[in-house]
Amino acid sequence: MIRNRAEVVGNRVHEVALDCIEAAVDAAAPEAATKSAIGREDQTLTVGGRTYDLDEYGEVVIVGGGKAAGGVTRALESILGDTLSGGHVVVKQAIDTETVRSSVGDHPLPSDQNVAATADILETVDEADAETLILFVLTGGASALLSAPAGDLTLEDLQTTTDRLLSGGVPIAEINAVRKHLSDLKGGQIARRAAPATVAGLLISDVVGNDLSTIGSGPSVPDETTYEDARDVFERYDLTPPPAVCNYLESGRDGRVSETPFPDDTDFDRVTNHLIGDNATALDAAAAVAREAGYEPLVLTSRLRGEAREVAKPLVAIAEEATATGTPVEPPAVLLAGGETTVTVTGDGGQGGPNQEFVLSGALAHDGDAVIAAVDTDGEDGSSDVAGAIADGAAISDRERAREALLANDVGSYLSEIEATIETGPTGTNVNDVIVLAIPGPSE
Fold first, then answer.
1. Does residue 426 have a cis peptide bond before it, meaning omega lies within 30 degrees of 0?
2. Largest CA-CA distance found in the chain, in angstroms, rounded
3. Taking the domains of the chain in order of start, what are their residue ranges?
4. Which of 80, 154, 190, 299 is the Cys-Cys partner for 219 at CB 3.0 to 4.6 Å?
5. CA geometry: angle 234, 237, 239, nearest 5 deg
6. Burial classification of residue 269, based on how many CB atoms lie within 10 Å of its CB (0-12 exposed, 13-18 middle, 19 or more buried)
7. Cα gap 389→374, rounded to integer Å
8. Residues 202 and 34: beta-carbon distance below 8 Å
9. Mapping DSSP to helix (H, G, I), strand (E, B) and coil, where does residue 132 land?
10. Which DSSP string corresponds to 5-21?
11. Does residue 46 contact residue 274 with C-beta atoms inside 8 Å?
12. Looking at the domain that runs over 5-26+280-439, which CATH code has it been given?
């Protein structure tokens, strides 16, 4: 999986850290996550603790989208076989599917391709009846890949709005509150359009805390936000939406456009959403590999967030405490964390991403021999084409140059120079970031 593994392995501790990274991404792979969560015996399909009698349905279709949607779909095709009638998913990377159509869309901004593919998906959903089982696949990236402008809004309206929200420092939950109210499918509206069909939502989370209504802007999940909430986002962050967006949100606030469905809406009577993969899935796999290597694993959190360069410092302090006192874990040990850290660009904006900033900041701050590795599980860290980085304090020989790179938000250039970046290419999954701090024992 790690294409440049030979270049970044320094010693056995590096190997353990990289093994943990690979195991984490493997476990979060959509095919593996799907087959772990979904099974079939004869005509009984089991998803989590819920069963579906396939004999009760005249059609079984798969629709949805996201970076990992292709892998989930391929796994479902192998499980369902001839029972599957068809469907359509929108993905970021081309993938071969047999029965279900797959379209490649654009991310992070919606495009004409996204809108055209989503329109076809909505047509399939609208045609569903009480004898249809819809398997609705939703993974990270779906908010952009599944795009259906509401009312008279245009694609350009959605692009401009998304760009302003993403560059305006708006948290994802608030971005999605806006997206839900500018869309014909988000915020529970897939459920509304699918009724009276049975809908099984199959979700892989790229959201810290796994709020189902935030994953992909919650097309199959009840929406507790309103048009007024969406308008407030722009005021709170001093952002100006395009005039058409402003007018549409005002129409919704004034009751001239229907609200997204709330939790008590009867449209959800035949809808069940199942979380089939998340960051914890990845961390558990990394912990198992660490234990097999003779390292005691300790999962610190799957909800890490904040400025990457600052979040790194307390985590390396924990590694130092472990080395010095055996608390909270006795080395050799592996500390694990996951979540989604961020970068505030204050320099000219060079190469890099939050995982690379985490590693460089941690290596600069660390007083010890721990190896620090961090990757985005989708294989693309921030604005770069690498997944993340791996380093220890000894790797940072030119500390002044390293600090300058950090201040300039150009850590990717520096880490590439010292051969510390991790290259995987697109992984086909997305369950946020995975961080590994491998702490050697006294004899290593």
1. no
2. 71
3. 5-26+280-439, 30-278
4. 190
5. 50
6. exposed
7. 6
8. yes
9. strand
10. HHHH--SHHHHHHHHHH
11. no
12. 3.40.1480.10
For 66-128, where are the E strands, in sequence order? Answer: 86-91, 101-104
Encoded tokens for 339: 């979540």
Q: Give me the tens of pLDDT residue by residue for the chain, a chain 444 residues long.
A: 899 999 999 899 999 999 999 999 999 999 999 999 999 999 999 998 899 999 999 999 999 999 999 999 999 999 999 999 999 999 998 999 999 999 999 988 899 999 999 999 999 999 999 999 999 999 989 999 999 999 999 999 999 999 899 888 788 889 999 999 999 999 999 999 999 999 999 999 999 999 999 999 999 999 999 999 999 999 999 999 999 999 999 999 999 999 999 999 999 999 999 999 999 999 999 999 999 999 999 999 999 999 999 999 999 999 999 999 999 999 999 999 999 998 888 877 688 999 999 999 999 999 999 999 999 999 999 878 999 999 999 999 999 999 999 999 999 999 999 999 999 999 989 899 999 999 999 988
Nearest residue to 268 via CA among 177, 196, 180, 182: 196
Residue with token string 């790179």? 405
Q: What is the pTM assigned to this prediction?
A: 0.89
Q: Distance between CA atoms of 229 and 227, rounded to whole angstroms?
A: 5
Q: Taking a C-beta distance cutoff of 8 angstroms, is the pair 147, 118 a contact?
A: yes
The CA distance from 7 to 419, in Å, is 7
Q: What letter would DSSP give residue 261?
A: P
Residue 432 near residue 340, CB atoms below 8 Å = yes
| 172, 386, 393 from 4: Cα distances, Å | 32, 10, 20
Q: Which residues contact 24 (CB under 8 A, 6 or more apart)?
A: 282, 283, 285, 286, 377, 434, 436
